[in-house]
Amino acid sequence: MDLILDGIVEAFRLLVTGDPEVADITLLSLKISGSATVISTLIGVSAGTAVALLRFPGKGFVISAINTGMGLPPVVVGLFVTIFIWRSGPLGMLGLLYTPAAMVLAQTVIAVPIITGITLSAIQRLPGKLRLQILALGATRRQMVWTLMKEARLPLLTAVMAGFGGVISEIGASMMVGGNIKGYTRVLTTATVMETGKGNFALAIALGIILLALAFTVNYILTTVQQRNRT
Amino acid sequence: MNRFMKMFSLVLMATCFAGMSPGGGRGDIIFATTTSTQDTGLLDVLIPVFEKKTGYRVKTIAVGSGQAMAMGERGEADVLLVHSKEAEEKFVKQGFGVNRRIVMHNDFVILGPKADPAKIRGLASAARAFRNIASAKTLFISRGDRSGTHVMELKLWKKAGLNPEREKWYQQTGLGMGQSIAVANEKLGYLLCDRATFLSFQRKIDLALLAEGDSILLNVYHVIEVNPKKFPKINAAGGRAFADFWVAPETQEMIREFGIKKFGAVLFYPDAVK
What tens digit of pLDDT does each residue of B56-71 get? Predict the structure, then answer.
């Protein structure tokens, strides 16, 4: 019990004094997971909308694959990304392993199916006649898709939040492809594991609390945006 | 709606560009090493000194010695600091590594619950201690990860003439040294541990140092450069510079002082300068 208290006290001390190392780690977590979420949103929302609206053979198979992908184990993603980008791998010449870019890549692979899946169900849940109605009002195809997306913006923001939540809290892939390098690829989750390994439990708890606070802040901002624009 | 879209895309753009911090240049050294050097905090002291002096950036990957050498065998690391004698010799013999140099040593110790149900306290023979643990069937926590410590542990079981792999009282964590100590501490089991990690955990655990001093328990760390002839893509110059750094007199002095400053005892005895 005293350990948890120590952790909370330590977290506040780190936050209040603005410990530069912890600040860097926190900022890096936000940058990496933020970038991965942005890229995944672009890919996932487009892909999800496309799959929802288009008719093609094997659609059921594709949807099942996407839904399975929503539960991709991060360590498996980490392993495959590692094998692809290490020096002797197919993308070895890019020199990506143990860089923040590799972490963005791995986290994108994790978040894309989540965002695609939620987008897919959001668009599919819109009344089918809405589409006909928009087209009947003289909208082009592009305008129709845009209007549908706007209609579904609440669940779409949920998709973004789920994607972000999935990657900011993820550890297996970040550890594998980032390597937990001090001042370079050390993020809140990998630092927490390392401090636990060092036996610095109070610091580990403090990092955990900061991670929760960060996730909460980002979600709070997104939720505020989501709820304010309810029509 | 428009304002929302604008604000949203602005936030997105900002995070997107912010995420692309400067990428890795040629000055990166991939350094594969053991968890004990990281868990004690030694690397946090030494690496910044090297980086400041040379301008290289060291990417430390702290894993077990076995995994570190597996990375070397694929040319995925530039330089290694490991402690697993037979495996190291094999690694160099097979042509994966060159220029293996001694850096420092300490020793392994056997930790266990203070009550010592297996009665190993003060035993001079590590194999004897292991035999006692086995016949008492008291919980033993193994790293189980092919690390230098795990390899040493297997060597001791072999010397004791036992194979506990399938026994109920023998549990493998698959974790690093620090976390394995935490497991043993929680379950009050015995375990083999390097002295440096033990000293840095001493104040936080209920386990006691029960057996030490057997000459077989010597724990020697070597630095090995990955062979650039075998793997032309590696950063050979960087690996050489970092290996040279470990055996340089000033570094060796820092290694000696490291433990004294932080824990009041020497954690690693420097060996490169005679």
Answer: 999 999 988 999 999 9
Tell me, yes or no, if B267 comes closer than 8 A to chain A by beta carbon.
no
Range of the domain at B118: 112-217
For A2-228, CATH gives 1.10.3720.10
Quick one: how far is CA B246 from the chain centroid?
15
Residues of chain B in contact with residue A153, where contact means CB-CB under 8 angstroms, are 1, 4
For residue A87, give the nearest of B60, B201, B233 by CB distance: B233
Per-residue pLDDT of A142-165, as tens digits, reads 999 999 999 999 999 999 999 999
Residues A144, B92: Cα–Cα separation, whole Å? 65
Q: In this predicted complex, what is the ipTM?
A: 0.75
Q: Which of B38, B51, B56, B59 to mutate to probe the A interface, most A CBs <10 Å? A: B59
Distance in angstroms (rounded) separating the CA atoms of residues A35 and A207: 21
> For a pLDDT cut of 90, what percent of chain A falls above it?
64
Say whether both B90 and B224 belong to one domain.
Answer: yes
Q: Which of B20, B76, B204 would best serve as a mutation to test chain A binding (most A beta carbons within 10 A)?
A: B76
Considering the domain boundaries, does residue B16 fall inside one?
Answer: no
Domain count along chain B: 2
Q: What's the pLDDT at B18?
A: 45
Q: C-alpha distances in angstroms, B33 versus A99, A172, B66, B69, B70?
A: 18, 19, 10, 9, 11
CB spacing of A38 vs B15 below 8 angstroms: yes
Does residue B152 lie in a domain region?
Answer: yes
pLDDT-derived band at A94, boundaries 50, 70, 90: confident
* CA B235 to the chain's CA centroid: 22
